[in-house]
Amino acid sequence: MDKRVYLCLAHMSGQEQKYIKEAFDTNWVAPLGPNVAGFEQDLEQFIGNGKYVSALSSGTAAIHLALVLLGVGKGDEVICQSFTFAASANPIVYQGATPVFVDSEPESWNISPELLEEAIQDRMRVTGKLPKAIVVAHLYGMPARMDAVMEIAGRYDIPVVEDAAEAMGSSFAGKSCGTFGTYGVLSFNGNKMITTSGGGALICPSEEKKKRAVFYATQAREPFPYYQHEHIGYNYRMSNICAGIGRGQMTVVGSHVAHHRHTAHLYSELLADVEGISLHMNPTDKYDSNYWLNAILVNPEKAGTDYDAIRLHLDEKGVESRPLWKPLHLQPVFSDAPKYLNGVSEKFFEQGLCLPSGPYVKDEDIHFIINEIKTCMKK
Ligand SMILES: Cc1ncc(COP(=O)(O)O)c(C=O)c1O
């Protein structure tokens, strides 16, 4: 192949520069301005459910602020899905709290509700108190089993932070990912469903909570004519320039999601007769993944090869692919954290690979990728 095929490259609509130019022309080159408000409005409309959105400098910042707003602090424990990117858990440590990792279920690949309840009960036995929050992720755009997660969280009255960094446009039982929990998080990093070059958003339950998020995101400055600070603040607001990119991207988010879903169906069709390789598809019709990254599991006994041989082969042929997230309970930095395991995420890590899925991935690229996977299996 004479070009390289990437997992998910940023793709511009052409409208972005109009908003950026406007920002320059009006000298709103600052972490506030009309693009920030406009982008927030677009996001609120997109996710619906009466939520309020605060545009921030990253998804990680949004997770951090969610924990700040929930009052997570020193001595607290926060349950976190183990099978996710480190950014889901790092902010727990920023707050001086301890992450407690819970394994995944095989259907959605996200937090196992059964194990979640086991973990809550065991932490109560061990520490005498409830975990302060639950961080659940929708990996690769696939929704977690949110009806069960919310039922359990509700029964113990533990707030949920939904890490929907990868799940913009996904829904569970018809409801947008990011709108189930007390707080939801989106990421607009360069490789996400839409990008602001770097950025994120916090989905809030009320206007008052949104105002509080903005307060903490802008150094927690109290309303005095001089600089008065009564809380520790952060510099987490999105700039008006980045928000201009976001407004342009909102004009193509629908077509981006549709394209990712199209790639999933084509991969599924072409992999249907391939023994030993399974594609991560919606487990039931309650799930509506955005298929941000299409992911496969390679069973080495049945496939006659493993995920890493396929990764190396594809790389040689000009195709980027990537192992699945290494579960956080296996990360050296979290080696002391309590964990509740069932072997599911470790198996995924040993067998899984993400395949190109973004707006620049064409049908012929997917045919080429599947043919090369088949070639690798025959080697
Ligand atoms: C699951 C998950 N959580 C959180 C993040 C953090 O988002 P950001 O890179 O915008 O800080 C990412 C992506 O980078 C992610 O994939």
Structural class designation: alpha/beta
- The amount of helix comes to 25-40%
Please provide the ordered H/E string of secondary-structure elements: HHEHEHEHEHEEEEEHHHEEEHHEEHEH
Bound small molecules, by name, code or SMILES, are:
pyridoxal-5'-phosphate
Question: What percent strand?
Answer: 5-15%
Question: What is the CATH architecture descriptor of the largest domain?
Answer: 3-Layer(aba) Sandwich
Oligomer: single chain
Q: Give the low-pLDDT segments.
A: none
Radius of gyration equals: 21 Å
**Would you identify the CATH H-level superfamily of the largest domain?**
Type I PLP-dependent aspartate aminotransferase-like (Major domain)
CATH topology name of the largest domain, in short, is: Aspartate Aminotransferase, domain 2
Please tally the β strands and state the result.
15
Overall outline: globular
Termini Cα gap: 19 Å
Q: What strand line-up does the widest sheet have?
A: 1-9-8-5-4-2-3-14
Q: What is the CATH first-level class name of the largest domain?
A: Alpha Beta
Number of domains: 2
* Biggest beta-sheet profile: 8 strands, mixed
